[in-house]
Amino acid sequence: MKVPRRWAWWEYALWALLLASPLVLPERALIINEIAIVALFAVSLDLILGFTGIVSLGHAAFFGMGAYVAALLAKHVNPDPLLGLAAGMAAATALGAVCSLSIMRGSDLTRLMVTLGVALILAELANKLDWLTGGADGLQGVVMGPVLGRFEFDLYGQTAAWYSLTTLLVLFVLARRLVQSPFGATLKAIRDNRLRAMAIGIPVTQRIAVIYTVAAGIAGAAGALLAQTSGFASLDVFEMRRSADVMLVLVVGGTGWLYGGVAGALVFTLLQNFISSITPQYWTFWIGLFLVVLVLVGRERLLKPWTWFGRGGKA
Questions:
Q1: Is the pLDDT of residue 220 over 90?
Q2: What is the mean pLDDT of the chain?
Q3: Max alpha carbon distance in the chain (Å)?
């Protein structure tokens, strides 16, 4: 049996800094909340992309499902945030279980098209069912109750930031435990060589279905957090752009170690906000240029300039 790796000192320090950030930087609480939500979304994608090798362009389907379910529950049934979070996760998990049946077989291109198609179908349904979802205008007037019955959501976003960071930490711990278990070892075997994994008796299709369902539930939690902390759910939660952005987050932070989602969300969100404040018209150009340089030079070499030239002076 594989023994889970103990937490390093820097991990405790990192989470302590993250949880303290809304108190230290109260004027940046809204951005901190956004970073936490993007990080949770990226962690969910890393479970299937980095650890299992499943490429998805429709991961926003689960994000959007969680967002709309949490918003509808708060508006029409009960405004309790934890209840909405659980409902959003449950709905996204159920959707992930259904969608997992369609991605267990076929090539990477087939999975890309299937996952993208699911997100497009849900977006069109949300648009047509305007009596329920608000259609193109979005679901407005979502008012959340206090967290745990005590902590009211404030205009500065401190409660929202702590709520999202705490949810991120809890689900990150569960995901970390999962990938460091014997189950996680089988996922890596499937990622590295599916045929060999099947030859040694690993139930590949079942493993893919389980991890895809788990990842969908975590993505639904991220969507629920977005709807709850913003008080709004719109069609853009299903857009391909959101799925593409979370893949870019993992490109920046790295795949296959979970912290890539956290680091990538931090760098990508801060860089996006910083550049867009300087040049609102051309910020996408500079983000694209940064990603091109990152891919060409390499993440490790970019962070260590003295390694830009390897042995013999070659780049």
A1: yes
A2: 83
A3: 67
Reading the block at residue 238, the tokens are 């299903």
C-alpha to C-alpha distance for 233 and 66, rounded to whole angstroms: 10
For residues 174 and 9, give the distance between their C-alpha atoms in angstroms, rounded to a whole number.
19
> 108: pLDDT confidence band, cut at 50, 70 and 90?
low
Q: b/e string for 109-148 if b means 16 or more Cβ within 10 A?
A: eebbebbbebbbebbeebeeeeeebbeeebbeebebbebe
Q: Where are the domains of the chain?
A: 9-239
Around Cβ 289, how many Cβ atoms within 10 Å? 10
Report in angstroms the alpha-carbon separations of 202 from 70, 97, 183, 199: 36, 20, 10, 7
Secondary structure class of 147 (helix, strand, coil): strand
Mean pLDDT, range 3-31, rounded to an integer: 84
What's the first-to-final CA gap in the chain, in angstroms? Answer: 42
Instruction: List C-alpha distances in Å: 46 to 40, 50, 242, 246, 279.
Output: 10, 5, 15, 10, 31
User: Which residues neighbour 175 within 8 Å (Cβ) at sequence distance 6 or greater?
Assistant: 43, 47, 214, 218, 258
- The verdict on pTM exceeding 0.85 is yes
| DSSP state at residue 254 | -
- Tell me the pLDDT tens digit for each residue of 164-216: 999 999 999 999 999 999 998 999 898 888 888 888 888 888 888 899 999 99
Tokens 């995901």, located at residue: 175
User: Tokens 């460091």 appear where?
Assistant: 180
HSE-CB of 224 using CA atoms within 13 angstroms:
30
Rounded distance between C-alpha atoms, residue 92 and residue 238, angstroms: 13
pLDDT attached to residue 165: 93
